[in-house]
Amino acid sequence: MLQWNSLSRSPDLDSFIKASYQKQILIFKHSTRCSISSMVRSRVEAQWPSNTFWTPILVDVIANRQISNVIADIFGVQHESPQLLMIENGQCSHHASHFDIDLTRIQTFSGQNNY
Prior knowledge:
By secondary structure, the protein is an alpha/beta fold. The chain contains four helices and five strands, in the order βαβαβαββα. Strand 2, helix 2 (about 35-45) and strand 3 form a beta-alpha-beta unit.
């Protein structure tokens, strides 16, 4: 079962970015007020492989808009919600939003063969 790591503070983001040199992280920006975001989050959770090299990070963009904006600035990716960013070696190597978020597609960008 997928266990999200919550992200709400800049120091935690710095730690996750440093960790991305060892293991890819997937940051999911989620709006608790958006039915599309809820549906996409459910799909991500259902598609999440039991054995993966990814670390799952969840940002509640309603409660933590400031950290969501920091993520957009650091990685040069316009904020959207829902949105998924793959971070590896301190860089955003892939991002998708709304219905383009699909772990089976993202797997091809990550080199993971978990399916």
